[in-house]
Design brief:
The complex is a heterodimer.
Chain A lengths: L7 H32 L14 H8 L7 E4 L4 H6 L4 H8 L23 E4 L6 H15 L5 E6 L6 H12 L4 E7 L2 E2 L2 E2 H4 L15 E6 L3 H16 L5 E6 L17 H11 L1 H11 L5 H24 L15
Helix pairs in contact in A: 1-2, 1-10, 1-11, 2-8, 4-11, 5-6
Chain B lengths: L1 E5 L9 E7 L6 E2 L4 E6 L4 E5 L4 E6 L5 E5 L3 E6 L47 E5 H15 L3 E5 L15 H5 L4 E3 L4 H13 L3 E5 L10 H9 L1 H4 L8 E6 L15 H5 L5 E3 L4 H13 L3 E6 L1 H4 L2 E5 L12 E4 L4 E5 L3 H14 L4 E5 L2 E3 L3 H11 L2 E4 L8 H13 L8 E3 L10 H7 L3 H11 L3
Parallel strand pairs in B: 10-11, 10-12, 12-13, 13-15, 14-15, 18-19, 18-21, 21-22
Antiparallel strand pairs in B: 1-8, 2-4, 2-7, 3-6, 4-5, 6-8, 9-16, 14-20, 17-19
Helix pairs in contact in B: 1-7, 3-4, 9-13, 10-11
Classes of the chains: A alpha/beta, B alpha/beta.
Chain lengths: 329, 451
């Protein structure tokens, strides 16, 4: 059996798996470092970590093509790293320095990259949903066959503007994938205490929008679902909903006392369902990579993270003149 | 026995209309509910039904007649018992009566007053146009010029605009660029802002700015702030437009003036034209601007006619006030429909020998402070006029700026004439009291000139 792995298909799979591992680990280590810098007072305000949810963006980015767009909420660091934004620029924005993506004027929740088609980074729960449909509206207007990945959480899924958007996206057949990252807690309110029906992916049915639930701790399952949804949108059939069941290990933000769930619940998820451990195990058990190769990746990531933390600390303070720039184009 | 059929009021602001067509003729038997005529209002052509049965004895106003005043008799009905041959004397009422029988207390100011040259120069020809037509022409011209400009809103396409502002645009530009939305302001505004992030140039029509409150998060948090939060990488080049402020008798939820609300927000530009030429020129500037622009129109002004220059590409810059009348005794600063009170007051005051300078701000963000300060340095007195609520009004802000920058020039306190600090009442008499009035402006002027 082992010999058969060295086929063209397996080589691709091998490459994908290693990339998945690397990209997820980059996000994990970046977020751990961000948490650490927050504790040191180098990052201020609200800081929402993505730890535990890495497979969602990494899997979906693997389904994206050049020109596709993405937009998300304030829990956005992972999305930025996954679409190829520079960790230095992201971390320097977290520290509010001149080298940050928004020159220190956006912060953790409000970052953008025109170059990478990353449209934020939005601090108002659910506001990015019509905005994402608007990005897709522009693609349809230009007939360029691109899709927009519009991410929001199970909490945002209860906002009224989401359903206004579902209606128009379906009516106008907008090429938008609504990605509901269901991490089971809207801030501190568990899904069963906030959401009348547990199957959020069915909420498009009233508008004729297809949806499916996806295991968000399995990066390959996410990628497969992303491909299917993107093909559907590119075929001009309109929007698609992916409810990706995931879990965040850390609090809603750094200032979350986490009284709403047990330590055991978190531990159990980490031990049994960690998306990065799952890929590492697969890489080794299927002999896609050796222990040595994995260690080399781990080391590379550690270096990238240390370097970006140094960059973010050393990046100059924003000049006072910047207070008055970028208000008007 | 005969009864008069009166010209109906078919919209809240209708004062007169065109009797487009009679669908019955003299001698016809008419039942209640029969459609007897088509009447064209400033908004649409409407069918007019009979409310009684009888014989149409006499048509008083011929079809095709324009400017038929609301409540003037247009026909006579005889009940069936009456012989239709009864000799009916024509009713001696002039269809085009003066304004005393209408609700409005203003006549439109056709052109700049008191020898002030029009901004476009005396040699340029003009045409008379309503504010409504001017806004439509501006949108059409810009849509011809730039493929990325599109119009979105409730009833903008097939209905031809709830206030007929977008009339004809669907025919010319098609449903890709003139888009009817569901009644979901929050959602479609967000979609428009998102499309602007991606480089399109949407014009969002709010049926009235009162409904923009549903969407204000997308306007303020998404459209206005993203350029700053992205360090200049992306913004929202777009226009939010629609009627703003009180119309007539539509009550508290449909009558608010949002000038001060939106002028508060860095990242937005805010304009509120009074005349048709400014409406056109400012709209073209707004569509070309790379920032989100709040364009505040007014339902009562839509039907007012002004001279508009016959120029291929007439634009009016933001941040530049227009002096409508030069004077030396007092400065009145206003904008939008407030200009009607300001000009009306200035006419009356001139007759009494008071020399009034009238400044139309046109643009509320940015504001042309220079023109105001220069004027006050000359007149030493200032009154502001607007229809919005008093607390945190544009006038309050101007008073503060004038105090800081022209304190030594002031010979009297600045007085703000504003709407009253009450929700807009429905009753006609209370509504008049709730708005500011020409009399209040005149009385404020007299107070500051100590007369």
């Amino acid at each position: 059996m082992a010999a058969k792995k060295v086929t063209k298909k397996s080589t691709d799979e091998n490459h994908d798996l290693i990339k998945f591992y690397r990209d997820m680990l980059l996000i994990r280590r970046f977020e751990e470092k961000a948490g650490q810098l927050y504790g040191m007072g180098l990052i201020g305000g609200f800081c929402h970590l993505y730890i535990g949810q890495e497979a969602v963006v990494v899997g979906l980015e693997a389904a994206a093509r050049d020109g596709d767009k993405r937009i998300t909420s304030y829990r956005d660091h992972g999305h930025m790293l996954a679409c190829g934004m520079d960790p230095n620029g992201v971390m320097a924005e977290l520290t509010g320095r001149g080298g940050g993506y928004s020159k220190g004027k956006g912060g953790s929740m409000h970052m953008f990259s025109k170059e990478k088609n990353f449209y934020g980074g939005h601090g108002i729960v659910g506001a990015q949903v019509p905005l994402g449909a608007g990005l897709a509206f522009a693609d349809r207007y230009r007939e360029n066959n691109c899709v927009t990945f519009t991410y929001f959480g199970d909490g945002a899924a209860n906002q009224g503007q989401v359903y206004e958007t579902f209606n128009m996206a379906a009516l106008w057949k907008l090429p938008v994938i609504f990605v509901i990252e269901n991490n089971q807690y809207a801030m501190g309110t568990a899904q069963e205490r906030s959401t009348s029906s547990p199957e959020i992916y069915t909420r498009g049915e009233a508008f004729g929008i297809k949806g499916e639930a996806v295991d968000g701790m399995d990066v390959i399952a996410v990628k497969t679902a992303g491909d299917k949804a993107a093909d559907y949108c590119r075929a001009g059939k309109g929007p698609y909903i992916l409810e990706i069941k995931t879990y965040r290990y850390r609090g809603h933000s750094m200032s979350d006392p986490a009284k709403y769930r047990t330590r055991e619940e978190v531990q159990k998820m980490r031990a049994q369902r960690d998306p990065i451990e799952a890929v590492r195990t697969l890489l080794i058990s299927e002999k896609h990579a050796t222990d040595e190769e994995i260690k080399t990746i781990d080391k590379e990531i550690k270096e990238i993270i240390n370097a970006c933390a140094e960059y973010a600390k050393d990046s100059p303070e924003v000049s006072a003149e910047e207070l008055w720039t970028d208000i008007y184009a | 026995m005969t009864t008069e059929i009166l010209m109906p009021a078919l919209s809240p602001t209708m004062e007169e209309g065109k009797l487009a067509k009679w669908l019955v003729k003299e001698g016809d038997k008419v039942s209640a509910g029969d459609i007897i005529a088509e009447i064209e209002t400033d908004k649409a052509t409407m069918e007019f039904e009979a409310v009684d049965e009888g014989i149409l004895a006499k048509i008083i106003v011929a079809e095709g007649t324009e400017g038929v005043l609301v409540n003037s008799p247009i026909a006579m009905m005889a009940n069936e018992a009456t012989e239709s041959t009864v000799d009916l004397q024509p009713i001696e009422k002039n269809v085009q009566t003066d304004a005393s029988s209408t609700k409005t207390e203003f006549k439109s100011q056709e052109a700049p007053l008191s020898g002030i040259e029009a901004e476009w120069g005396a040699e340029i020809q003009t045409k008379t146009q309503t504010v409504r037509e001017a806004i439509r022409d501006a949108m059409a011209e810009e849509m011809r010029r730039d493929e990325t400009v599109y119009l979105m809103g409730e009833e903008v396409a097939e209905y031809q605009g709830a206030y007929k502002v977008s009339q004809g645009l669907l025919d010319e530009f098609g449903s890709k660029r003139v888009i009817d939305t569901p009644i979901t302001e929050h959602g479609f505004t967000g979609i428009a802002v998102g499309s602007a992030f991606a480089g399109l140039r949407p014009i969002v029509e709010f049926m009235t700015f009162n409904f923009s409150m549903q969407a204000i998060d997308q306007i303020v948090n998404s459209a206005a702030k993203t350029l700053y939060m992205s360090g200049g990488q992306m913004g929202a080049p777009m226009v939010f437009r629609g009627p703003n402020g009180a119309a007539a008798r539509v009550g508290a939820q449909h009558s608010q003036d949002y000038a001060a609300w939106y002028a508060h927000i860095p990242g937005l530009k805010v304009v509120q034209p009074y005349s048709a030429s400014d409406a056109k020129g400012l709209m073209k500037t707004a569509i070309r601007d790379d920032n989100p622009v709040i364009f505040l129109e007014n339902e009562i002004l839509y039907g007012k006619s002004f001279e508009v220059p016959l120029l291929e590409d007439y634009t009016v810059p933001f941040g530049k006030a227009r002096v409508w009348r030069e004077g030396t005794d007092v400065t009145i600063v206003s904008f939008g429909i407030g200009m009607q009170y300001a000009l009306e007051a200035s006419n009356q005051l001139e007759a009494e020998g008071v020399s009034v300078e009238v400044i139309d701000l046109r643009s509320l963000r940015p504001i042309d402070y220079e023109t105001i300060i220069n004027s006050i340095e000359k007149t030493n007195r200032c009154i502001t006029v607007e229809e919005g609520f008093p607390i945190g009004s544009i006038g309050n802000h101007l008073s503060a700026v004038i105090m800081e920058r022209a304190f030594d020039y002031l010979d009297a306190p600045v007085i703000n004439c504003t709407g009253k600090d009450v929700p807009m009442p429905y009753a006609a008499n209370l509504e008049k009291l709730a708005l500011t009035t020409t009399a209040e402006v005149i009385s404020a002027v007299k107070k500051v000139i100590y007369k």
